[in-house]
């Protein structure tokens, strides 16, 4: 294939094994754990959903994550150049990288809006203006925020500018350095909140809700949602892990790193569930509140416990921290593509990405105010961005990446990446993963997508 623009010695990357781990885990951990995971688990019946999500993570998520990182590290280039370089006979696999860039813009346009609410809530929690034991009141505060076009838009721009300014510092001094500081802080805050929550009287109910399945709630649409969550959680199917793979150190053990990240990410989700649900059950709220769970239920719950104001601020700071590493990784995809393929200097590529996102994000930011009347198929622009990315684009990207590694790239190169040029003996693992990616992963994703979208009837 054609050589990538900026391959080789001068290219930026993560500087240490710890840095690789922090950045990769930083990408996985985010709103997915604290906003999506509890609300989806709550709305879809608890433990049964959790089990389907676990299966998707193990059978689909983890192999794809390993595959993406391996591709990235082999090519040492952005997703478009990487797939171009590794594809046999000029086959157009690079289109998958282009799709990834589109998915990145789509995800960031709604993701940054949720983080906008989080930032606004940190400010409001610190000012003490959020707490009320009356859920009608906390609902009203949330509605007032999301239906206010000025606040929605300005907070989104604050969030985007914040992430952009970290990216301007570069891969090593920006992404790696920041995630290395934030990840330990995140675990500390989460453990504190969780420890506190488990002393509440509703803890028992919450744990049985999280860990005792109700099978009848599992429908094909629920399975698709669980699989979509697995993609979203592990940041796969859109080139993010490929991009980070291109920054991995040569000696980093890819399968071990991916497994560790998956396990740590899962712990964060479970801890978040154990921090949120006991509080919800203790004060008689419904666990099925959906996306507004953390914004409406949690302030009402925390109003009823001593020290609630401090806890509430801590909780939203926790979410902001978690979301930062994730947003850095999503935004890095278009930045490095614009940098390496269009030849823009990195700062310019970052500013251009920022500008595009400020424009595109408007659709999501205003979807409950000025643009609330635009609801094709009953979904707002915000809901469409969320739905299409997790349930369509990422799974499609996943199918393509599985097929690429299984059929096009070749097992030799894949095995070489997994074995770190022979230092480790991962041949059998490479064989097994190749077979899985060739025959099982694409078929499984395809079936779940078709069933979930109602193609087989419902
Ligand atoms: N994994 C992140 C989360 O769970 O919040 C979201 C995400 C990050 C999705 C990076 C996609 C991505 F490329």
TrEMBL record:
Pfam families: SNF (PF00209)
Keywords: Membrane, Transmembrane, Transmembrane helix, Transport
Full protein name: Sodium-dependent transporter
Membrane association type: Multi-pass membrane protein
Main location: membrane
Species for this entry: Diaphorobacter limosus
Cellular compartment(s): Membrane
Lineage, top ranks: Bacteria, Pseudomonadati, Pseudomonadota, Betaproteobacteria, Burkholderiales
Domain of life: Bacteria
Residue spans crossing the bilayer: 13-35, 47-71, 91-108, 115-133, 153-172, 184-212, 218-236, 257-277, 310-331, 351-371, 392-410, 436-456
CDD domains: SLC6sbd_Tyt1-Like
Keyword Membrane: yes
